[in-house]
Amino acid sequence: MFTNNQIALENLPRIENLELLGIASKYKTILVVNRIVGFVGFLIIFLILDTFVVDESFPVTVFWTITVAWCLVFVLSLVFADLSFKSRQYGLRDKDITYSKGVLVHSVTTLPFNRIQHVEISRTFLARKFGLATLHLYSAGQNGSDLSIKGLPFEVAQSLKTFLTNKLNEQS
Amino acid sequence: MSSPNFSIPTRQSAKGIIVLFGFQLYKLVKQQMAIIFVSLYLFIRKADSEKIVWLGLGLLLLLLLVLIISILKYRNFKFHIINDYFVLQQGVLKKEETAISKSKIQNVYIKQNLLQQIIDVVSLSVESAGDKKTEIEIKALDKPTAQALKTLLISNNTQESNNKESQETLEVLREDKTFYQVSMKRLFLEGISENHLKSLVFIFAFFFGLYGNFKDALGDVKLADLEASYFQYSEKSQMMQFVIFNFAIITVLLLVAFAFSLVKTVLINFDLKVTENNKGLEISKGLLNKVSLGLVTSRIQTITLSTNRFKKALGLYQMFFTQAMVDAKQLKNFSIIGLSKSESKNLIEKFYANILEGITKHKPEVYFKRIKALQVLVLIMGVNGLIVFNSSYLYFLWNIPLIVFAVLVVRQSYKKAYYSIDENYIVIGSGGLIEVNTDMAELHKLQGVQFKQNIFQKYRGIASVKIYTASKALTIPFIKENDAKTIVDFLLFKVESEDRHWM
User: Fold this and answer.
1) What ipTM describes this predicted complex?
2) Distance, CA of B223 to CA of B203 (rounded, Å)
3) Chain A residues with CB-CB distance to B489 below 8 A
4) Residue B409: partners with Cβ closer than 8 Å, 6 or more residues away
């Protein structure tokens, strides 16, 4: 029989009550390493330019201003790396998966299982060294509705993939 | 009807050579436009009769080469249908064979550009599930053959391929009736009431793009000179003259934009016709480039109804559809213009039953105005930034119209913003100074939901909700955090409890 009862909004299951899990703490190291690489890379290029390309008319004060500013940016980016790590959380319910991220702009994205098209695991060089992996969830939606959960322990990513793949197969 | 036999590999119509030649030449000219112009320019500057002969010979050789390539392409291009597979063989040096299962075919478009219209052939392109872009195009078929092939290809429900049934489907599909047809008068009115500012921006972008391309070729004509003369003029003259001068410039620009939007609207939408068949609607339109597109009810993801101040006064509405799995280039063609209010209502009802009854408009928070104001402020500051570097401070007068514009934009966009969610549909209203848009989607078509909040919004307890469908994302901007959370919960509940398919 077809029923179409009114839904009491206060009785809806609330995403808010879902307890989100953090990602592997080793991922923080990756975030920091990435930033160090960026920082040092820029510094090296800058020093090379200063020694070989720029002539003596280039004021020393400008050199130091750029260097100090860049160091400040670096420290700030480390603080952000820490905050960004804490904001990356995920959680599963019976019928959907949720991932939250972002410091300045915080977003909580939820994909219902019955809208996921396929699941994929990828591992960068660093992630392999740390035993981590990224879980990609693809829906048919526009850019932005696809979820990528970075920094999961490889085993967790694999079991999540198996779990989700089974869910997908159940549906079709 | 003596239906063509598609079971053996067939070449396209022999006229295809001409079409292929045209396409090939067009591609060559388009890709090498800058080089061609530059070399022509350099050549003409110091041309003598001997060189002209050589140039002619060179061009002739080039054309011959293109012709040979076209003939080879034509010879190697064959298609047929076998065992419910549409098979295509092509390629001159690199042979390719593509086979698509008929059940995977999503849509078949029939198009006709100017050249194809002259020699009376059509092009047929096939779009299949999973492909982001159309790969398969048969560039020259005569009309009846194309129609027959199209009917065969989209009658995929008859996979048993028993003859009787497919015959039946053919009959049903042929009983199309005209649902809507735009009159020449309404088409003109549409063109006249376009947002000409938008056209202006488009023209500017186009010319700056061209200018960048031909910078070398143009050489002597410098934009900077023009600019300098403009400034000179203003410095010498009186205030009144300055105002008149600027006014004249704006008038000319607007006239150009006006002509551009009128011509564009008429060319694209000429003889716009919407016919109905058992799978949905079929839109056909165009003067230089005729297209015919299928609108499949089950694949429609969002519908946008839009109008503007002038159009509304004239009773003109436009509808724009997004469909899942449609090539991006094709997607922008799915629009119907020149609808009256009642016609647009009928059409919406056809896809979304009772959607207009359940609307209760909820407004975004006043925070919305602040963000809009900030956005416009950036624009104003940019303009003033440019002025500061100029010698004449008379330009600051530009701020008067700009600020009036800003205030109006902020007020109007807040006034036009609302959202409505009921059991089945979500409706989001938006607009600016001139436009009014209404986005509509069915709840079960959503692919994912996102709750979004920046740190300033968190402080004020405000958030946005982004709803992803398979072809467009809808945003409910700046509402109370709690409302946003409830909406997310409700949407997820609807999708997960009902388990209806989105396509």
Assistant:
1) 0.89
2) 16
3) 9, 12-15
4) B372, B376, B432, B433
